[in-house]
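Translate sequence into structure tokens.
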Amino acid sequence: MTKKHRVLVVDDEQAMRDFLTASMTGKYQVTAVANGAEAIDLLHRKRYDLVLSDVRMPGCDGLALLAFIRSELEEPPLVIMMTAFGTIKEAVEATKQGALDYLTKPFGMDQLEHVFDRAFELRKLRTENRTLRSTLRTERENLGLLGTSRAMDQLRDQIRMIADARGTVLLQGESGTGKEIAARAIHEAGCRCERPFIRINCAAIPETLLESELFGYERGAFTGAVQARQGKFELADGGTLLLDEISEMPFAMQAKLLRVLQEREFMRLGAKYAIKTDVRIVATTNCVLKEEIRAKRFREDLYYRLNVIPLTIVPLRERREDIPLLADHFCRAFCAENGKGVLAISEAALRSLVALDWPGNVRQLQNVIERAVIMSNGPVLDETILGLADEMDGIEAKLDLDRGVTLKEMERELILRKLRLTGGNRTRTASELGISVRTLRNKLHIYHASGVKIPG
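Result follows.
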């Protein structure tokens, strides 16, 4: 049931008070008083959504009442003035002092309802705007990184400290921890925020195309190059270039990137002259690059060039206190996206969410909440609709936790179980775990090489 708006009518004429009270009582909660002094006494004790007041009244008139409302009340109601033809000038003055509108007596109920509807719609828009401004202010203060844990506070402090620096940033963390969001926060918090933020996923582009994607090419540089094209370095000039999953960059391409970082210039494919570049590089990886160096898959000199400012985003299991905040944020976002009313997450479900280890980190939590919102048919998301039993069910049965099981073993068992449940469907498995297909493929390759039988 929609809550009725509370309206305070202020008029020294008994007939007008009776008429307005009788006419509006069905739609609004109406209180009527005879003068401004009585209205002020009520406003000290009760909260009203709208005050409908005559301009001229003995003693405390409408303008004095308006001045009190505007200066003394923390949450002032909307104010609409009523005026006779001869006092329109005073009503106009009232609107200059903060009254929303005025009505000229005599007026009909249709006119009154039109003014009220417009007033409450404006009030709704103002409330939404205040909420939006508050949300945007909070997001700016938090740099778009949700979380109240000490780890997130430290990360935000580090980002503010390095935001204006030109040094290359190496963002490290497991898949799904939010490295791209952190990279964007670095860009938006610094002096380059008005310039482009360009992202390229080093794992998603074939080796044969990666060079042209990064550096661009001239017309005729190769078959099919019918016109010149800018690469990511040119597009990001003056701004930030995010090299996502840098560990997946082909070894030969790493040497060319190293030269650009050292010389601060590059050449388009087929070009005769180098182009100077002013780009801040942020690279991300979910691998331990020193292990990649030992395996001869990553250049040591490039690592030291990238690792000027190292930042690490801790996994979700190490900042469990952020899980309720993240779950609520995702729930509200997906409710809005799917046209559903705001849903609540049960206390029991929240406790279970906090208890899980989330190998897919924030991305996995996000996927779980999205699925639950879409599948929900009630006002509360409980453990059943969240599918939490499916997330971790059976893992403890497969592992002897008392023997000191490692995190890698736990992760392996979860991945293999999900793969079995999906009938070997790697795309679906990766999606449900909140990781990329490439990450899943790499992990399965490691498991297979160690003699583990891969489902499907």
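Note: The CA atoms of residues 147 and 153 lie 8 Å apart.
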